[in-house]
């Protein structure tokens, strides 16, 4: 036993060295450090973009970005939903390492006023670049927490994670912000409140009858009155819950102050563009890092009048085309300010499109092309394969395509390297510097293995077998699609990660993505001679990976992911939270 423990210790050290930061194959390009502009869509399917095969949604600006830069065809999110994926993007680490996952089915942060969020001990690329002299800004969606113990301690706030400037939503755009037919929280809360009010009303009626007929001697008119009050309060809350959610979660902040509560969603897009333009113009002497985190194309698909009805794909297509126009406006700002050649631009999505975003006969989620599954599915490719485009004129070759596995986590070491910084040495960083691969001086990605989590549960892993040119995918667990024969979990917001609606595979499912990117044909020992070797190799990699994990508090579990009234940001006296501090400038 001692020998076995000793062997595991050496294996863990070796894997930590492999998974930890590596020196770049090449130094930073000569000349001034670049400005860095990171553009992230919300819930965009890889199949919704022209340069990734869509011929009916018009995305000329994103397509131009790809034509002028490098397009990654196997770019992967570290998680299939917003909060953990964005945590991994900012830190270069699997979200399980920072605790930005749940083990209880709470896939993302549920409210603004929760105590969970990206721990202050985590190091984001914004922190490193700020220390290296960059001016750093975030415009748009955050969804990584706000406060810990009081409504203004802002322990999880973007400004506490390296950003000098923040304008946007501390939470996330959601259908409840517009009281849509689709609902993330309102419909469930209304139903629960109505059921409770009906039960209390029944109890009140029973007590009243019992009092009048003397069948319930213990009944008193005081008890009847109080139960009636409780019933009326439950009914009133049920009627007001939609408005309460709008005020609690759908608001804009400028740095530490609330700018607009609740936000007027139809006016938010031009406000975001104005903030981007203002930030670029103020900091054009550089260097700057600007992370533009779009509210598009998450439901409720708020789209201005100029773009409504323009696409062939309803409101979702309209919203996608409007986001592409926004990308064009941002790139035009760089052109106008003479910053195009000195700015690295990156475009991606936080995960795949939502297949379950349906209401009536209408589809309000994205298309993931040939890839199986979608948002919320930790293993299937449609939930995690995303656009990945880099442009830096004169440094990165235009029109280049890379068919190697890469990750959103790779942005962390790449931008840190370009800024002349050092990747942290005191923790495992899972991302890999992409510069050599983007420039063409490296043939292969540094990722041999990538793990695919659903919450805290490992659903799949991939192995890039470079000598054979194969990319193997092993599925240990997959969600049970509903109804039978469907390609998603219809009737639910997203597919579950655990429980009786998940199938565990022994032996695991095996696919060769290099030949079967749609994951349509599971391989067997009869159809693939390498089956056992591949499965055993991946199993050893998974075991070694697990040796590098350390226990941390899970920020998305119920204890830290339940609404706490004392954490609720409010620009008035709660619950009367209303203000528009940007009205004059608007």
TrEMBL record:
SUPFAM superfamilies according to UniProt: Alkaline phosphatase-like
Cofactors, names only: Ca(2+)
Alphabetical keyword list: Calcium, Hydrolase, Membrane, Metal-binding, Signal, Transmembrane, Transmembrane helix
Entry-linked PROSITE patterns: SULFATASE_1, SULFATASE_2
Molecular function (Gene Ontology), one example: arylsulfatase activity
Domain of life: Eukaryota
Membrane-spanning intervals of the chain: 223-245
InterPro entries on file: Alkaline_phosphatase_core_sf, Sulfatase, Sulfatase_CS, Sulfatase_N
Signal peptide boundaries: 1-26
Listed GO CC annotations: endoplasmic reticulum; Golgi apparatus
Domain Sulfatase N-terminal: 34-420
Family membership noted in the UniProt record: Belongs to the sulfatase family.
Protein name per the record: Arylsulfatase L
């Amino acid at each position: 036993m001692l020998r076995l423990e000793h062997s595991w210790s050496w294996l863990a050290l070796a894997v930590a060295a492999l998974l930890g930061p590596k020196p770049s194959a090449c130094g930073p390009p000569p000349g001034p450090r670049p400005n860095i502009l990171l553009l992230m869509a919300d819930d965009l399917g890889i199949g919704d973009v022209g340069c990734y095969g869509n011929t009916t949604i018009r995305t000329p600006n994103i397509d131009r970005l790809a034509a002028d830069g490098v397009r990654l065809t196997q770019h992967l999110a570290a998680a299939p939903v917003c909060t953990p994926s964005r945590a991994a993007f900012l830190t270069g680490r699997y979200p399980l390492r920072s605790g930005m996952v749940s083990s209880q089915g709470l896939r993302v942060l549920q409210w603004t006023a929760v105590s969970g969020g990206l721990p202050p001990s985590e190091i984001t690329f914004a922190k490193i670049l700020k220390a290296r002299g960059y001016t750093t800004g975030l415009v748009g969606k955050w969804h990584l927490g706000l406060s810990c113990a009081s409504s203004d301690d802002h322990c999880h706030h973007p400004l506490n994670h390296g950003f000098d400037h923040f304008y946007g939503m501390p939470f996330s755009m959601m259908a409840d912000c517009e009281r849509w037919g689709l609902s993330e929280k309102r419909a469930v809360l209304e139903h629960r409140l109505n059921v409770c009010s009906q039960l209390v009303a029944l109890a009140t009626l029973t007590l009243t009858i019992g009092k009048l007929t003397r069948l319930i001697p213990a009944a008193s008119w005081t008890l009847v009155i109080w139960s009636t009050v409780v019933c009326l309060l439950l009914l009133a809350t049920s009627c007001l819950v939609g408005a309460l959610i709008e005020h609690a979660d759908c608001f804009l902040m400028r740095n530490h102050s609330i700018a607009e509560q609740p936000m007027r969603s139809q006016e938010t897009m031009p406000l975001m563009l104005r903030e981007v333009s203002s930030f670029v113009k103020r900091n054009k002497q550089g260097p700057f890092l600007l992370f533009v985190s779009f509210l598009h194309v998450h439901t409720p698909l708020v789209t201005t009048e100029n773009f409504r009805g323009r696409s062939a794909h309803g409101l979702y297509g309209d919203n996608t085309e409007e986001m592409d126009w926004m990308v064009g406006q941002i790139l035009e700002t760089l052109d106008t300010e003479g910053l195009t050649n000195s700015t690295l631009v990156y475009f991606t999505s936080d995960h795949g499109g939502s297949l379950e975003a349906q209401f009536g006969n209408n589809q309000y989620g994205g298309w993931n092309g040939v890839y199986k599954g979608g948002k919320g599915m930790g293993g299937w490719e449609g939930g995690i394969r995303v656009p990945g485009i880099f442009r830096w004129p004169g440094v990165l070759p235009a029109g280049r395509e890379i068919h190697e596995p890469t990750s959103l986590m790779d942005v962390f070491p790449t931008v840190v390297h370009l800024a002349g910084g050092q990747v942290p040495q005191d923790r495992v960083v899972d991302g890999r510097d992409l510069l050599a691969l983007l420039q063409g001086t490296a043939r292969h990605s540094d990722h041999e293995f990538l793990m695919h989590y659903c919450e805290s549960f490992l659903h799949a892993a991939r192995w890039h077998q470079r000598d054979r040119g194969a990319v193997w995918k092993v599925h240990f667990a997959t969600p049970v699609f509903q109804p039978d024969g469907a390609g998603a979990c219809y009737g639910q917001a997203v597919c579950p990660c655990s429980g009786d609606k998940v199938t565990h595979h022994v032996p695991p499912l095996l696919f060769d993505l290099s030949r079967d990117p749609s994951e349509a044909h599971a391989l067997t020992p009869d159809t693939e001679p390498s089956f056992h070797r591949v499965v055993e190799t991946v199993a050893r990699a998974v075991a070694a990976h697990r040796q590098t994990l350390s226990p941390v508090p899970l920020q998305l579990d119920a204890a830290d992911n339940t609404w706490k009234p004392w954490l609720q940001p409010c620009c008035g006296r709660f619950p009367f939270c209303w203000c528009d501090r940007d009205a004059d400038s608007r």
